[in-house]
Structure formats: C-alpha cells, structure tokens
Amino acid sequence: MSGIMNSIYNSSSYALYLHSKALSKLQEQYSTGSRINRASDDPSAAYQVLGLNTQSKSLENFISTIDDVSSVLEMSTTIFNSMSSELSKVKVSLNQIISGTYDENGRKRLAGQVNDSLNQLVSLANTKHSGKFIYGGNDTANAPYTVEKTGERITKVTYRGSDEDRNIKVAPGVESNAYYVGDELFRCDERSKTTFVGETGSGIGTGTSSVKGTVWLNVTSDVDGHYNLSIGGPTVDLGTVADKSNVAVKDADGNVLYVDARNISKTGHEMVNISGTYDIFNVLISVRDLLLNDRGLTTSQLQQCRSTLSGSLDEVSNLLLSKETSIGSKIGFLDDLKQSITNINYNTEDEATGLQQADIAQVSIDLARRETLYQMTLAATAKLMSLSLLDFIE
Known about the structure:
Layout (H helix, E strand, L loop, with lengths): L1 H31 L10 H56 L5 H22 L2 E2 L2 E2 L11 E6 L2 E7 L6 E6 L2 E6 L2 H4 L8 E4 L5 E2 L8 E9 L5 E4 L5 E2 L9 E4 L5 E5 L7 E7 L5 H13 L6 H58 L3 H26 L3 H5 L1
Antiparallel strand pairs: 1-2, 3-4, 5-6, 7-14, 8-13, 9-10, 9-14, 10-11, 12-13
Helix pairs in contact: 1-7, 2-3, 2-5, 2-6, 3-5, 5-6
C-alpha cells in the first residue's frame, strides 16, 4: 500500500512540475512576444539570431560611417563653391584691369581685395570638420597649409599635410577617402608650356624645370658687366657659366628653372608662367603683386602678364570644377551604397525577428491547453491522494 501511494505521489508531482514549467515558458513568451528569451530555449535558433544581430550591428556602424564621410564630402562641395566664387571675382577684376577700367589707385584697391580673397582661400583650405582638418590627407590633426607674410600680405602658401589620402572603410571590402590631400585638390599637375613674359631676352632652357605656377626671373648686372639671374634663391653669375643655353636657376626651396640666357640684352623682370602647375594660392599672389606693379613693369608688360594670369585663373577654376564634380560623384556613390546597406540591414533584422518572435495566437492556444491539462492533473492528483485502504478492500 505504501509503495503504491509513493509511486502515485511521485508521478503526480512530476506531471505537475512539467505542466508548471511549460506554463511558465508560455507565459513568458506571451508577455515578451519573444520565442527565444535565452539560449537554452532553442540553441540552434539562438545561435542564428546572435549572428544576425551581430551582422545588423555591423551594418548600422557602416551606415553611420557613410553618413560621417558624406558629411565631410558635402562640406567640401560647399568649400569648393566658395573658392570658385572668390576666383570668379578676381577674374572679373583682372579682366576689368586689362580693359583699362581702373586707374592706378583703383588697381591698388583691387589688389587689397585680391589679398582678402587669398586669405579667405587659405582659411577655407584649413577647414575643420568634427575637429579634423579635411584637406590634410592622412594627417587630420594639423593645419595643412601654412603661410609666410610680409606685413599683411601673404607672400607664400605651403602645403604641410600628408601626401596620402585617409581612406575609411564604408562597407565590407569598400573604402572611401573623405580627407583628401589638399595639394592634389588645389594644384594642377599637368605641366605643359613654359612662357617668359618680359623684355630681357631670356628664354626657355632645354632642361626640365621643377618650379611651378608663376615665378619671377630677376635679371641684374654686376660691376663687371655680367648679367646675374635669380628667382628668389641663390644668384647665378652668367660670367661663370660656360653653357648659357641651359642655366639652372634655383629658388629658396631648391626648385629649378632652366633658362636660355644667350640672348639676354637688358636687365629687368620676367614673369615665367608654367602652364598646368598652378595652385589657387600661387595664382592669386601673382595677380595681387601684378596689380601692385612693385616690379616697375611697363604698360605693355603689364598687359601681357595680366592676359597670361587670366588664363591661369581659368586653369585653377577648371581644376576646382573638376574636383567638385568628382566629389559629387563620390557622394552619389555613397548614397547608393547606404541605401543598399540599409536594405540588407532591414532583411537581416526581419530574419532575426522571424526566428525570435513568438506566434502570439499559437502561444495563446497552447497556454489555454496547458492550463486545462494542469487543472486536470490537479484534480486527478487530489482524487488519487484521497484513496484509503477501504477503497482497495471494496
């Protein structure tokens, strides 16, 4: 009798435990709406959900990175528009000078305006975004451009940033450069014709010059009657040069201009224009200095130099337009990439939700069925536990 009652008790208790456990799990699913609340609920599905959630988080990070990169590039387009506007104003002023619209005082006022535009361009080239310089390439911590001044006039603008773009991973296996090398954006790099504008008789040497933009060749003479050449660096005494057809004249930075000095017949200044190598700063410095006419050029020389510089302004303006178009294309590419990643992320989230989300209708049915079984088990257990020896004797 004792053994039978123990068996009934143990079986009933175990049945009630199973029903209670199943009810607890169904109630949790009903309240949370999730079929998997812990890994043990469905280890295989839980592993898949974990992988999908990790993938979704990675995609969200890429979307955020694309937004950051696009923000930097959009700022670049705004800066390029501002720079183009400044160059356009200078071009208009220079053309008015060429046509004789302004007198000497007017030219000096315009020179001041060009100097202001130059300061504005340097400031734009040293723009920061979120605490990072955007035109220093891989070096985003330091200002990419430094200036040398004489009084209030900028005499030289030098690029000090990195020579490598800073590439940022925007998708698996895809990188985009948001922080460009300023010296590649704002300088032409298609060296072509070198022209001398002046009356000294200087010409182009046979060597390959390394100077860029506009340089001024100063031709002087010494007490011995020898002509001397300089472009801001060491002076070359032609009296000591054997081959005057290819004289190497260096500036302060070691850049070389090769000069054919055989036909030099007088002293003076020659504006040397190296097409395809201008940067936006060099050309404005040249325009400003030309408007001031500190070198005492004749009216004819001034007109020639201004016409040459007008073409140089077109050169750098076209450069900015080309770079702006390229950056605009990059923004379009990133927008398309962001949309693709967003769609992939939606699909990933849907798949994870499908694995994890509970079918509330089915859970409700299972919960009602399990509660009925639980109540039936309780009733049967109560009936069995009320048996006595008399029930067996009868």
